[in-house]
Amino acid sequence: MMNPYTQYLPERLAVWRARWGKRALCALAAALIVAVAIFGWKYWQQRQTARAAVLYEQLQQTISSEPASSVDKKETRIARIATELENRFGRTPYAQMGALAAAKALYQAANAQAAKVQLQWAADVAIDVEYRQIARLRLSALLLEEKAYDEALRVLNSGASTPAFAALRAQQRGDALAAQGQREQARAAYRDALQSLDAKNTAARQWVQLKLNALGG
C-alpha cells in the first residue's frame, strides 16, 4: 500500500519548483555575484598595493641616490614619482608615506614650494588621520618659516586633531599668533600646549614655558 505522505510527493515538488524555484535560483545567482565581486575587489586592492610598493621603493632609491645631472634634477624625479604614487595609488598606504618622504627630501634640497605641494596632498587626501595631521603640522612649520602666519593658522585649524598631536598643534598656533602680535591668544595657545603635554616630557614643557614666559606668562 502506498504511503499517503509520499504518494503526492512528485506533484508537491513540481508545485514548489513552480512557486519558489525561480526565486531560489535568483538568490543563488545574486550570492554568487556578490562573492565574485568581493573576491575581485580584494584581488584588485592587493594588486594595487603591490604595484604601489614597487613605486614607493623606486622613490626611496631615488631619494637616497646621488644627485643627478642638471638636465634631470634629482628633486624633479622625486616629485614626479611621488605624484605618480598619489595619482595612481592614492588609496594605498604607500601614497601617504611617499608624500611625506618626498616632502622631506624636497625641503632638504631647498625646494620648499615642491615640498609644500606634497604636504598639502597628504594633509587633504592621506587615508590615515595620523598622516594627515603630521602633514598639516609640517606644512604649517614651513609656512611659519616663510612668515605666512595667516596661512599657517588656516592649516592648523583645519581638520580633526587627536590627543597625540594636540600639544604640537597648540604650540605652533601660539608661534603664529605671537608672530602676529596677538599676545593674549598666543598665551592661551601655549597654555593649551602645556596642558596637553605629558608631565614626564620635561624638555618639551620647558620649551613651551619659555615661550609663554616671554609673553608675560
Please give a handful of descriptors for the protein shown.
217 residues; 79% helix; 9 helices; mainly alpha; flat
Structure summarized in a few sentences:
This protein has 217 residues and is mostly helical.
Question: Can you walk me through this structure?
Answer:
The radius of gyration is 29 Å and the shape is flat. Among the domains are: 49-63 and 73-147; 161-217, no CATH class. Helix content is 79%, strand content 0%. The chain has helices at 9-64, 74-89, 93-108, 112-125, 129-145, 149-157, 163-179, 183-196, 202-214. The termini are far apart. The longest helix has 56 residues, at 9-64. By secondary structure, the chain is an all-alpha fold. The protein has nine helices and no strands. The model has no long low-confidence stretch (mean pLDDT 85).
Oligomer: single chain
Count of DSSP helices? 9
Which stretches of 5+ consecutive residues score pLDDT under 50? none
- Spatial separation of the terminal alpha carbons: 105 Å
